[in-house]
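Need residues for this backbone.
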């Protein structure tokens, strides 16, 4: 998956916002940029995303994947996948959707309702 394809896919998910920070990384949030919660960070070569407990066990040692630097070392279940030799595009899209859903589920019911996620 190319960075352009990743961004196009994330743009289609509900209630997302996009910004560039941390040295040029594409950052995708559920909700508005100022107050939303991050679900994907991509530096153009790799994408980091939140995973479930099962996703963590499956991906942390998978080819082209590793625990996401900084985030995983802080106890968060985030995986970094190489965009060119990591997951197949169909699998990466599935994990990005799951990351979006996990982050959205962590929002208050009021916020999810405001964002049209209920």
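Answer:
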């Amino acid at each position: 998956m190319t960075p352009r394809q990743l961004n196009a896919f994330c743009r289609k998910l509900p209630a997302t916002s996009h910004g560039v920070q941390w040295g040029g990384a594409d950052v995708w949030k559920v909700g508005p940029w100022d107050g939303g919660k991050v679900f994907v960070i991509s530096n153009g070569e790799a994408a980091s995303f939140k995973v479930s407990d099962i996703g963590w066990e499956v991906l942390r040692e998978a080819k082209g994947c590793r625990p996401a630097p900084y985030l995983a070392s802080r106890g968060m279940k985030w995986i970094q996948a190489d965009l060119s030799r990591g997951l197949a595009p169909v699998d990466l899209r599935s994990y990005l959707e799951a990351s979006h859903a996990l982050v959205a589920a962590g929002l208050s019911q009021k916020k999810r309702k405001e964002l049209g996620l209920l």
